[in-house]
Amino acid sequence: MSCVKSEGIQTDKNPQGMDFNSSEIMTPRTPAMTPKELRNGGRVKTNAVAPKGVYLPNNNIQTPQMTSPEYVQLSTAAAITLGLMPGDMYNCSCTRCLNLLLTYPEGCRANCAYCGLARHREADRDYADRNFIRVDWPAVPMAQIADIVAKDGADSPFHRMCISMITHPRSDADTFTVLKTWTDRVDPDDIPISILSNPTTMTRDDVTKLRDMGSDIFTVSLDAATPEIFDKTRGKGVQSPHSWKKYWEILEDARDIFGPKKFGAHIIIGMGETEYEALHLVQKIVDMGGHSHMFCFFPEKGSLMDHLPATPRDQWRRVQLARYMIDYCGVRVDQMTFDEEGRVSDFGLPKPETEMIVDAGIAFRTSGCPGKFAEDISACDRPYGDSPVSDIASYPFQPEGAHLKKIRQQLNMEKPGETYVKGEEFEDL
Ligand code: SF4
Q: Which of 135, 346, 370, 425 has its CA 20 to 30 A from that of 107?
């Protein structure tokens, strides 16, 4: 079954109209120099405004001096679910993962080209006001968050809590303290804990300690699918401290310490890798005993890649489907076939079985650490973190009806007589 279309759509950001993001076009801008006085959170530290409870970003007030472990940031979806912010999300009543982010006036000291939190933004936006995976991240005292969740315990809407460590000299020690603040109030058996690690500053002993303190799953955000893309987007290419080698060391430590199905790697699709490269990486992680968590590249506003095209949906859907088959259906990458551009041309299963997996829709949901519904349904649903609602990449809900029709069209796998009409999935709105 050939799923490859010959042409993509021409847009300003994708002038060649390619149906995949090639390595030639996916080149980050060069980071600008930050004036000395604005480096390391200079503006926030000079103003030294004391924090008072919840801080909502971009609220036209001076950003207070908030620091982990007392403060953390949480996703807009988590803040809505906790009742700390008003708001609605299309087709989602809540998020199932409480994503927390360590916070410092100096912010993350890395400079990853696709990330809204990167250091090069110091001059134009204080750390706590930066967008990350398309949304704002309010800052809240950690004890307040844990107290609210502890009231509901196992009945909480959250199926998982995740601490994102970011890159900061204090982030190892502060992650332990944030974790302790949580486990003092919330039983990890009621709400399992994931760690989104920062390998650059970590040791194997840190990985062991995080497991011993009650963490369930440990993940490493490789993000790039090849060492070259890693270096170009989050290493020397953008004056960032990360190295592919160190990330793999910590991933292998996680395999040894957390064990099968309890570790994973984040991979962003559409940063210049081929589908062949991405899916061989997925297979490697499965062969190690772990899972991969996929993100669709989106040009995050203010990042060094905000001028580049989002991943074309046909490329993204092929990789989503193939990754799901490798992770959960026992299909191996060597059963699949690829064309001369490295695109999946056959998924390696008979057509009816492939169609059954597509129709089940789970392959197209957000991927990540599991919650309480099923092993292959991620608690971490990150509503609209890698796309706008109008062109959903990772579905934070079960895609059905016209949403599935649209997915089948993107995969070039429409059923006989079926035609997706643009916008029909939103007709009831
Ligand atoms: S280390 Fe993580 S948070 Fe920091 S810039 Fe890179 S991707 Fe963003």
A: 370
